[in-house]
Each structure stands twice: as C-alpha cells, then as structure tokens.
Known about the structure:
mainly alpha; about 45% helix; transmembrane; membrane; transmembrane helix
Amino acid sequence: MARVRRIVAWTTLAVVATGLGTYFAVVGLEAADQTASVVGLFVAVASLALTVSVELRARRRPVPAGGEPEPPAAPAPLRTDGAQQAGDHIDFSGGVFHGNVIGKQEHRRPVEGPDRSDMDAGEAGHPS
C-alpha cells in the first residue's frame, strides 16, 4: 500500500511539474507571474481561514453539566525506570507548560583558590 501511495505521489508531482512548465512556455513568464500572484492570494486566504477554524475548534472544549470546564490532566511522568533525563527538556503536555520553561541553566561552582584577603601586595605577586 505504501508503494502505491509513493507511485501516486511521484506521478502527481511529475504531472504538476510538466503542466507548470507547459503553462510557462505557452503564456510567457510575465503572465505566469501575474497568475501565480493571484493563485498565491487565494492560497493565503484559504490558509488563514483554515488556521482560524482550527484555532476556534481547539478553544471550544466540552463543558460538563456543572458548567465548569474540566481541568487539564496531570502530565505523565517522563521516565519510569528511575533514570534521569540528560539535556534540555521542556514538558509541554496538554497545551500547558509544566515545570521550568528555561532552555538551559548553568550552575557554576566558584573556583577554589587561596584566600587572598589576608595577603598583602607583596605576597599576591605584585611588584614592589
């Protein structure tokens, strides 16, 4: 079944490319550019309409009889085998951030060295 889909996809791509090449050759690039601008406008408007409709559907959640929307479910634990996750991780489950949303945190320990508070200028390596 996957092979049939792949064949259909490549055949469709070849037909579209051949059709566009023929169209460009017949009407010329200037007219083709104007047509592409108009088609691009309609594709943009259709994309905007689709985006708005998907967003509106996502915002509508089923409300139970009590009138209060259901709270989002708690996020599932990341690892159950006790191992810690390495690297950056931001938990974004159910459309809500959980935990830190900072990509990278570095905790540096101060460099340990001799206590310079009790040294005078000569002992600290300064020329006298």
